[in-house]
Amino acid sequence: MSNIRKLIFKEWLRFFLGSTFVLIMILCLGHILNALLKDSSDFKMILTSLYLEIPSFSIKVFPVSCLIASLFSINKLKTRNELTAIFASGYSRRKFVTDIGIIGTIVGLLLFYINAYVVPYTKHRQEAKNIRSSSSSLNPGGAKKEISNAISSGKIWFKSQDYFFSYSSFDRKRNVINNLTLYFYDKNFKFTEQLSAVLAEHKEENHWLLHNVLHVTNLENRTFPSVQFSQTKDVKIRETISDFQQINSNIATLDIWKLYDYIGVLRNNGINSSEYYVTFLDKFSSGFTCLVLAILASVALFNPNRRNSSFGTNVAFVMSFTFIYWFIYSYFLTLGQTSKVPAVVATFGVPSIFVLYLAGYFIYHRKLR
After folding, report:
1. What is the sign of the dihedral through the CA atoms of 352, 356, 357 and 361?
2. Residue 127, CB-side half-sphere exposure with 13 Å CA sphere
3. Residue 63 vs residues 67, 241, 262, 285: alpha-carbon distances, Å
4. Domain total of the chain
5. DSSP label at 253?
6. Is CB count within 10 Å lower at the N or C end of the chain?
């Protein structure tokens, strides 16, 4: 590695690490204040929750930190006349942009790993802590196992007091369970009856209306089972809507490939999977945005002799860009999750605009090497 490349990497990493630390501290402070405003007096619990939230903070922070690192490292080289000396030595702008692109790609891959594997793990830990502190009938940590079963067997399984049940998916907008099967057993744990339905529609409290029902009884005896078919059947189960919503919320604890498989399960059942598909694509787009924003600030390379970009101006630009980017990022994800815009547009729309701008800018300055 040449001395020039070492200098570029050194300055870039210094500003990247510094900006990442500052921005994460800002988000941590906001998290703590928000918890205190909610009358949470257990400071240990607040710190534990904060620790588990840090990987999620990195999704917002890393892209902005890449922009800051490129902007301030180039500006520092300009103010010390090192940028002019670098280009005078024969080191081209193309090589400089390539170096920034390489380190931006490395950061993007790191963020992809955090978003695809670390964040789901920390969300699982958070959900387990929330379940322990609530009165839900779901057992701690069980939801992740149930969702994993949905991927391996195509069904989500759960054990209640005197029955098991399984289903393929839960539509929380219509409060409908798809492909529900109930397996009842007696006090001696003998399998007594089975209820299967194409879908179960929630009516009130713990009452559900089953459609296209197959009811098999007399399973605990040696005689032949009794089988009944019916169009509808009203049943009562202990689990509430909030329990099924709790299981659904734990889908965020799946790693990227299990999440993709679960999206396939939803699509096979005709359920809108936009919310989860946006989450899936965001794991790729967040890493891609790191690369794009790292290169975006490199447009300053085409004005190596100008010093009109003062430190205060850069700080004001970074602060404005950061809050605007976070707002647009959250807004577009919300639009995608509610199916108001396609998932690809919601996740890759903003970085694609930057790519088009960079393409036009570099083509315009193509004569500068």
Report:
1. positive
2. 25
3. 7, 38, 28, 10
4. 2
5. G
6. N
Q: What is the bridge-based pairing of β-strands 163-167 and 176-185?
A: antiparallel
Question: 202-254, pLDDT tens digit by residue?
Answer: 888 788 899 999 998 888 777 788 888 999 888 888 887 877 776 666 676 77
Torsion-angle region of residue 198: left (phi > 0), alpha (psi -120 to 50) or beta?
Answer: alpha
Q: Looking at this protein, which amino acid is placed at residue 117?
A: Y
Same domain? 170 vs 106: no
Asked whether residue 348 is assigned to any structural domain, the reply reads: yes
CB 226 within 8 A of CB 213: no
Query: What backbone torsions phi and psi does residue 361 show, to the nearest 5 degrees?
Result: -70, -45
Radius of gyration of the chain (CA): 27
Q: What is the pLDDT of residues 63-90, one digit of tens each?
A: 999 999 998 888 888 888 888 888 888 8
Residue with tokens 């949905």: 150
> How do residues 305-345 score in pLDDT, each as one tens digit?
555 556 667 677 777 888 888 888 888 888 888 888 899 99
Domain-embedded: residue 355? yes
Collapsed DSSP state (helix, strand, coil) of residue 221:
coil
Residues 98 and 170 both lie in one domain = no
Residue 369 belongs to a domain: no
Q: Do 128 and 7 fall within a single domain?
A: yes
Contacts 24+ apart (CB under 8 A), 279-283: 279/252, 279/337, 280/256, 281/343, 281/344, 281/346, 281/347, 281/348, 282/59, 282/115, 282/333, 282/347, 283/112, 283/115, 283/116, 283/256
Q: For the chain, give the number of residues.
A: 369
pLDDT digits (tens, 9 = 90+) for 24-71: 999 888 888 887 777 656 777 778 788 888 888 999 899 999 999 998
Domain, as residue range, for 181: 161-238
Residue 184: C-alpha distances to residues 113, 136, 255 (Å): 42, 21, 32
Q: Do 311 and 217 sit in the same domain of this protein?
A: no
Q: Are 87 and 175 found together in one domain?
A: no
Residue with tokens 């205060």: 312
| Distance from C-alpha of 12 to C-alpha of 195, rounded to nearest angstrom | 62
pTM for the model = 0.74
